[in-house]
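Hey,

The postdoc asked me to send both predictions to you directly instead of through the lab channel. I've kept everything plain text so nothing gets mangled by the mail client. Protein one:
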Amino acid sequence: MIRVMLVDDQAVVRAGFRFLLEQADDIEVVAEASNGRTAVELARRHSPDVVCMDVRMPGGDGLAATREIVAGGPGAAGSTTPVVLVVTTFDLDEYVFGALEAGAGGFILKDCEPEELIDAVRRLADGHGLIDQAVTHRVITEFARRKAPPAPAVDAAAQLTAREAEIVRQLARGLSNAEIAKELVVETSTVKSHLGRAMAKVGTRDRVQTVVWAYQNGLASG
């Protein structure tokens, strides 16, 4: 079961999300919070796999809570660090930048279709980050420009094999593992293996952060 925590200051929104998500037989809502401060506490206590996080809430905003949850590491009983899916009505660039900077694994708008929300939760639980289609490569490019890292002592991109670098480039184009496999005429498992090694080498934790890294390091273009 995928364990989910809902964070939104509106009870009716949380109730709606709970109803939608629990229609799926592989998703369980284990906790709810109405503000960011409580969300951080409950994330440690309940160890959800995915946190559906609102952005603007009284009593602690979602971006600050996202940063704490991601930085806090595993919760109870040594479980893995929760992945945060930012779910908001706002598609303004600044909110997207804030979510990416805070370490969110995905970003989706509240007016998405029910199946899109369920698919987003499954994808993040399975280790695949995502950004809503309304968020274009322009946003990623601008974020990468704003957050350009200092020159590293070691060129991380140079540590990648030619195949790993190519797969990261295809990922930055927005392709899925299956689409990359078809493009490069290899097995999907091969893509997953190469991508995992590339992420380990450059120090990124998910696909979204890997795309940002690709733009920052010249492996992708806007």
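Protein two:
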Amino acid sequence: MTTDFLTAWRAGDTQFTLHTSGSTGTPKPIVLTRMQLEVSARLTGQTFGLQPGDKALVCLNTAYIAGVMMLVRGEVLGLQLTLVAPTGNPLAGFDPATTQFDFAAFVPLQLQTILASVGPDNVPVALPILNRMKAILVGGAATSAALENALQVIEAPVYATYGMTETVSHIAIRRLNGPAKSDLFTVLPGVTVGTDERGCLHITAAATNHERVQTNDVVELVAEADAVRFRLLGRADTIINTGGVKVQPEAVEAIIQQQLLQWGLSPRLFVAGLPDERLGQRVELFLENQTLTTEQWLTIQTAIGAALGRYAIPKAWHVTGAFGETATGKIDRRATMAAVAE
């Protein structure tokens, strides 16, 4: 796929067909123009101060927008690209003492794996490589409380990105480490955002061909003097309607992650609504390879009830083996729930 794309790009092709990740529905093809890809690449270069000759690591699946855009940035910005397979720890084969990358993008599970690979001093083996970078991006899925806590050992700036195939990669970033860390995404220059009647974000930018892209992401907009920012609350299509009360599962997940972190636990997890004759839907928790004691479960339920109300309290929890995943490494909730039901 990488060779095919670069061949087409260098031949001057003006249109490229990519597919969405399929994390919230059936993957669909989207046609993007060369101009859209170039505009997005230049915006990234401007945002992170990338210069011709800078070295970038490409370790994402180049069949999808995040990986493709790393290739485009290399072509448009004159970066020196090193391509490796999208493995759990893409830095494992590099010498920490001598390897220099200025820029890289990872999915959360990759960064989690990199930071968990420690030496005799209990320091991540690849930390020197990370610390030399101008910027580290993490996207494709939400970052957990445990990962954000682990990221604080990295000296280089680490940013969560917000974007999708339709917006040609990221249109907003959120600092995850250091004194400037924030829970708000900052919208990049030249990008216009707003919300619809559901409170869901819409986006207009040069990278979208100046067409409005409507998302299903529920946000809280924060207009400030220097920039437009937003807090990502969750997805409209994951809201659980239980007993007539709407529960945003992402808010429940955040409380559970924080509580588990206090016990030194950091499993992947998600909250979803299952059919219920009385409530319509009931809130339930799914954990990957992690059991809970009765005392832990009661503590979690109490914390959720105190913060979000009794309707948000999960009625049950399920432990599974490895979660189902999409081709881009996102949790496939529907596949995982179907496997539990079998």
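Summary for protein two, as requested: The chain has two domains: 2-235, 239-341.

Thanks,
C.
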